[in-house]
Amino acid sequence: SQRTLVLLKPDAVRRGLIGEIIGRIERKAGWTITALELRTLDRATLETHYAEHKGRPFYEPLLEFMTSGPSVALTVEGERVIEGLRTLSGPTDPIAAAPGSIRGDFGTIVRENLIHASDSEESAERELKIFFPGRD
Ligand code: GTP
Ligand code: MG
């Protein structure tokens, strides 16, 4: 089975949506949360995480937002969990996301789109090391 890195972004925590979002993940058959931590992410961690976006116009505002309050970082294991969590999240732009998805149900703003989930096996491996170093 697979493992993926999920972040509940500061907007999700501020709006009291931790339980709602984690509940949806927990209810998927055969998926297990294997690590979970509430923490305010620091800039260095996010620069590594979002390195591919450095130089884009949304990069600085994104880091500003992502350091604006606590996030929840979690690892989820299970069958096709990488693809599954992208589907559960919906597309980056919440207005384009279908109702029933997390972004589609709760989001309106591209930057404040509630959740991050690794987009491939390579990303998952890279990101798990960033947010949960020393675990395997
Ligand atoms: P993540 O799961 O957070 O990585 O989102 P994603 O994979 O759906 O999007 P991507 O990796 O392309 O962008 C990372 C994050 O940057 C997004 O989740 C948004 O919060 C933000 N972002 C991406 N594109 C834009 C944009 O065009 N405008 C703004 N304001 N924010 C953007
Ligand atoms: Mg991404």
Automatic annotation (TrEMBL):
ATP binds at residues 9, 58, 86, 92, 103, 113. Gene3D superfamilies: Nucleoside diphosphate kinase-like domain. Its main location: cytoplasm. Its cofactor is Mg(2+). PROSITE patterns: NDPK (PS00469), NDPK_LIKE (PS51374). InterPro entries: NDK-like_dom, NDK-like_dom_sf, Nucleoside_diP_kinase, Nucleoside_diP_kinase_AS. CDD domains: NDPk_I. Keywords: ATP-binding, Cytoplasm, Kinase, Magnesium, Metal-binding, Nucleotide metabolism, Nucleotide-binding, Phosphoprotein, Transferase. SUPFAM superfamilies: Nucleoside diphosphate kinase, NDK. It is found in: Cytoplasm. Belongs to the NDK family. Major role in the synthesis of nucleoside triphosphates other than ATP. The ATP gamma phosphate is transferred to the NDP beta phosphate via a ping-pong mechanism, using a phosphorylated active-site intermediate. Homotetramer. This is Nucleoside diphosphate kinase. The lineage of its organism: Bacteria, Bacillati, Actinomycetota, Actinomycetes, Kitasatosporales.
